[in-house]
Structures are given as structure tokens and as C-alpha cells.
């Protein structure tokens, strides 16, 4: 339990939904699972239709206040929330570690994103009225106004980081938000909402854990004006279909099968650690992570050997506060089974493993990392997103050919190019059909950089100032300067 400045203590062992500014439990409870041990964590309430209706009603009331609060004042409040969240950084990091399986150093980084996101979005300057035309006959202006109520449906791989790209834009632009964390990782999000309540009018920022019924209830609720969803492409299509019933706006950040292209002019010892992180960070559970490696034939064997040595040097296992792990378990049993299927398919087809890896039998969901050595382009491990620590590495010779292979996918979320010749790197990057490309770095999304998907990797986008435009309504006023007043009587 922690206290700050004499405020009410925050208990990090008791969890409630946050509705209308108050904690609320439920007659139905469930528990998240610690992926390092396979054991249940704390009870957490399952929200009902009645809870959602109450949350929407409260948000409608909160919107009347929050949307009229000046932008600068909203920003100041968000900065206060960010400062308050910092005071609980250790407790929040421990929650992220326990519910998500992240090694403590990376859990601490994600906890920092919660406060940092509030501070970044809270510091953005307000929209200005744009004058499109102004002459003796007409004045045309364009303004951006608060949208209403946002329903945010968040994934389990980065429960705080993905949520902040929805919470921050909603709050600063004057909208209210109802966040549904993944039932696999509800704890850190519910605590973030609880901490924020002391600074906000009731209904502005609410959070509720739910089962498989809650997501569709949110997407279909007539009182919600926008859905922001991060998750799989298959689920995103269902979200879009459901939201269409009430013509909700949607932002969808969906799956990807991102590729790294490594050119022959790099120093393999210099790039191997970064390429390895690109493929295996968070045990491969990052939407924009490198899922496929394409390495030029002149350095293929050397880079493969170097990456194998880098990954062998990492500790992979259950996470505790002092475990010192570089890679933790995958987050849940469902994903563990999906990854097991990739291992089995590679073995069945006789693909060579440069790093054999291993899917453990529990009690947690640890998977030792694996590298598949030059499987065919038709292989399941190449064609499908594995979202786990098993990565294929393939040979390329011709630049046009490798670009064609990289783009031969229905998705287009991210990608990376590793090349000493920056002009060549830029040229290759411009040909990759994806929303975000990194050059000479592993994938590092930033709050100030717009992130969006091409093809079936999404609609709309989030992050940066540009991302705010997906969280507002735009209004254009045409004012004709004609005399329409009543004539004065003599």
C-alpha cells in the first residue's frame, strides 16, 4: 500500500472497476494468471451491461464539463496526473511484471510510459482555428472540436503503453474515455484509472475489466462515438463491423508481419545485438517487431552466427524483481499454444534450426528463443505472424527481389532496414509497404511519432500531434458577409 501527500492510500492488492469516479466491484470475479508461474493473481470484477450503461451515462455528464474546460487547463490536469503516477512507479512496474511476464527493467520502462504519456500529450499546444479564406465577401474557417465518448479496447502485450496512446489524445482534445483492458492484464490499467480520479471530473476517465461479452457491448453501445482498438486483424474486422451499426469512428492498430532487411555493408558485430532485440524484444510480443529477417547472402552465415551467440547470452525464464531475465514468458496459455504450433510445423517440415529454442511444459509459459535457418517463403513461419520468440532468417541477393518478398503479405505495420549507406537505406525503406520504418534500429515506437498500419494492419492511427486528428470532429464554417439584417424604420 502506498500513500502520497496525505491523499487516500492506493492499495495495490485490491482491484475494482472505476465507474463514475468511484471504485465498483461485481458479483462476478475472475483472476489474471501470472505467466511466470501459471498461478492466479488477484480477484478482479467482471463488468456487466449495467456497469457499462452507468459508465456511458457518467461520461455523458463528464463530457459536458470536460469538453468546455480550456485546452490549457486540461493539459495542466494531465501533467498533475503524470506526476502522481510517477510516485507509484515501483508498484506499477511490479504489476506489469506480474500480469504481463515482463522482466523488471522492461516493466519499469512501461510503467514510465504511463506517466510520460500523460506528460507528453498534456504538453501539446491547442489546435488553432484555420482561416481558409477571408475576403470582402466570405470568411471560411476550420476548427477541431471534442468528439464525445471514446471506447478503448486494449491488448495484453503492452497494457499501459497502448492504452496511453488512446487516453492521452482523448483527454487533451476534450473527450471522455472508457478503457477496457485485456482480461489477461487488467491490473495496471485499473490502478492507473484509480490514481487519476482525484484530478478529474467523474466520468472523464473510466476503466472496466470484462469478459468476452464486454468488447462487443462497447462497440455497439449507441452512447459511444469512437472505438480505438489494438489487437489482431481478425478481431479488428469484427470491431469495425460492429461499430458500423452506429457509424462510430474507428482507429484500428492491428497485426503485422514486419520484416528487417539487412544489407551487405554492415558490420555484423555492430548490428547483431540490435537485430536480435528487433526480433525477440518482449519475447516477440510486439506488434511492430521484426517477424521475418532477410539478410544478404554475403553476410548471412556470419550474421546468423553472431545473432545466435547474442541470444544465447540472454537469460530467458520466469520473471521476478531480481531474476535478471532478458526475456520472460509469453503472456498467456493461448499464445503459448500458438507458438508451440509454429515449432511443431517447422519440425514436421524439416526446417533447420540455427537456434533450437524450446516450448516449455510449464508451470508458466516460458519459451526459449529459436531461429529458423532459411525456410522457404511458403513456410507458415514466414507467411504468418507468430507473435513469439521464434523467428525465420532468410537469404537475399537482389534488392528488387527482397522488396517484393517483404511486401508479399496482407499486412503492413512496420519494418526495418540495416544499412551503412543511408541513402540506400532510405531508398529501400521508401519501397516497404508499411506505416512505420526504422533504419539501423530495432523498432521503438515513440509517443511523438504517428503510428499507423497499411493494408490489413489498420485504419487511422495514433501517436504524435497528427494522431490527435482521429480524436476530434472537424467543423468548417462558411460565413458570407452579406446584409441580412432587418431594415430600420424611419
TrEMBL record:
<dbReference type="InterPro" id="IPR016162">
    <property type="entry name" value="Ald_DH_N"/>
</dbReference>
<dbReference type="InterPro" id="IPR044086">
    <property type="entry name" value="LUC3-like"/>
</dbReference>
<comment type="similarity">
    <text>Belongs to the aldehyde dehydrogenase family.</text>
</comment>
<dbReference type="InterPro" id="IPR016161">
    <property type="entry name" value="Ald_DH/histidinol_DH"/>
</dbReference>
<dbReference type="InterPro" id="IPR015590">
    <property type="entry name" value="Aldehyde_DH_dom"/>
</dbReference>
<dbReference type="GO" id="GO:0004029">
    <property type="term" value="F:aldehyde dehydrogenase (NAD+) activity"/>
</dbReference>
<dbReference type="InterPro" id="IPR016163">
    <property type="entry name" value="Ald_DH_C"/>
</dbReference>
<dbReference type="Pfam" id="PF00171">
    <property type="entry name" value="Aldedh"/>
</dbReference>
<feature type="domain" description="Aldehyde dehydrogenase">
    <location>
        <begin position="30"/>
        <end position="477"/>
    </location>
</feature>
<protein>
    <recommendedName>
        <fullName>aldehyde dehydrogenase (NAD(+))</fullName>
        <ecNumber>1.2.1.3</ecNumber>
    </recommendedName>
</protein>
<feature type="active site">
    <location>
        <position position="253"/>
    </location>
</feature>
<dbReference type="InterPro" id="IPR029510">
    <property type="entry name" value="Ald_DH_CS_GLU"/>
</dbReference>
<keyword id="KW-0560">Oxidoreductase</keyword>
Amino acid at each position: 500500500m502506498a500513500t502520497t501527500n496525505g491523499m487516500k492510500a492506493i492499495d495495490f492488492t485490491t482491484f475494482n472497476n472505476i465507474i463514475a469516479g468511484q471504485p465498483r466491484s461485481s458479483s462476478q470475479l475472475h483472476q489474471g494468471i501470472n505467466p511466470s508461474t501459471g498461478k492466479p493473481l488477484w480477484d478482479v470484477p467482471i463488468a456487466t451491461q449495467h456497469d457499462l450503461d452507468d459508465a456511458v451515462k457518467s461520461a455523458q455528464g463528464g463530457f459536458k464539463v470536460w469538453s468546455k474546460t480550456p485546452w490549457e487547463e486540461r493539459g495542466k490536469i494531465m501533467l498533475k496526473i503524470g506526476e502522481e503516477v510517477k510516485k507509484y512507479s515501483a508498484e506499477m512496474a511490479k504489476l506489469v511484471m506480474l500480469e504481463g511476464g515482463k522482466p523488471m527493467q522492461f516493466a519499469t520502462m512501461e510503467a514510465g510510459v504511463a506517466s510520460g504519456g500523460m506528460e507528453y500529450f498534456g504538453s501539446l499546444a491547442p489546435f488553432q482555428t484555420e482561416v481558409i479564406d477571408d475576403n470582402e465577401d466570405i470568411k471560411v474557417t476550420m476548427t477541431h472540436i471534442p468528439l464525445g465518448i471514446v471506447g478503448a479496447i486494449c491488448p495484453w502485450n503492452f497494457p499501459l503503453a497502448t492504452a496511453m496512446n488512446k487516453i492521452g489524445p482523448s483527454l487533451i482534445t476534450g473527450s471522455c474515455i472508457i478503457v477496457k483492458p485485456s482480461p489477461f492484464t487488467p491490473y495496471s490499467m485499473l490502478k492507473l484509472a484509480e490514481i487519476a480520479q482525484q484530478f478529474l471530473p467523474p466520468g472523464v476517465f473510466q476503466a472496466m475489466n470484462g469478459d468476452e461479452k464486454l468488447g462487443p457491448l462497447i462497440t455497439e453501445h449507441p452512447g459511444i462515438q469512437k472505438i480505438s482498438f489494438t489487437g489482431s486483424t481478425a478481431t479488428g474486422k469484427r470491431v469495425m463491423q460492429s461499430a458500423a451499426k452506429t457509424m462510430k469512428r474507428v482507429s484500428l492498430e492491428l497485426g503485422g508481419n514486419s520484416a528487417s532487411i539487412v544489407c551487405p555493408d554492415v558490420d555484423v558485430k555492430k548490428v547483431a545485438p540490435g537485430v536480435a532485440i528487433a526480433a525477440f524484444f518482449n519475447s516477440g510480443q510486439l506488434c511492430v517487431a521484426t517477424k521475418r529477417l532477410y539478410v544478404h547472402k554475403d553476410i548471412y552465415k556470419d550474421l546468423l552466427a553472431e545473432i545466435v551467440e547474442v541470444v544465447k547470452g540472454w537469460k530467458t525464464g520466469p520473471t521476478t524483481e531480481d531474476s535478471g531475465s532478458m526475456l520472460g514468458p509469453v503472456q498467456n496459455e493461448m499464445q503459448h499454444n500458438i507458438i508451440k504450433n509454429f515449432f511443431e510445423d517447422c519440425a514436421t517440415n524439416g526446417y533447420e534450426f540455427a537456434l533450437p529454442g524450446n516450448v516449455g511444459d510449464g508451470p508458466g509459459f516460458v519459451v526459449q528463443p529459436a531461429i529458423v535457418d532459411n525456410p522457404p517463403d511458403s513456410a507458415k513461419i514466414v507467411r504468418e505472424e507468430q507473435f513469439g520468440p521464434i523467428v525465420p532468417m532468410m537469404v537475399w541477393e537482389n534488392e528488387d527481389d527482397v522488396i517484393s518478398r517483404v511486401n508479399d503479405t496482407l499486412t503492413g505495420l512496420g519494418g526495418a532496414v540495416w544499412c551503412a549507406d543511408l541513402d540506400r537505406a532510405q531508398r529501400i525503406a521508401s519501397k516497404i509497404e508499411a506505416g512505420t520504418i526504422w533504419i539501423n534500429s530495432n523498432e521503438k515506437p515513440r509517443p511523438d511519432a504517428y503510428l499507423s498500419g497499411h493494408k490489413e494492419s489498420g485504419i487511422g492511427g495514433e501517436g504524435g500531434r497528427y494522431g490527435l486528428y482521429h480524436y476530434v470532429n472537424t467543423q468548417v464554417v462558411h460565413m458570407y458577409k452579406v446584409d441580412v439584417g432587418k431594415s430600420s424604420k424611419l
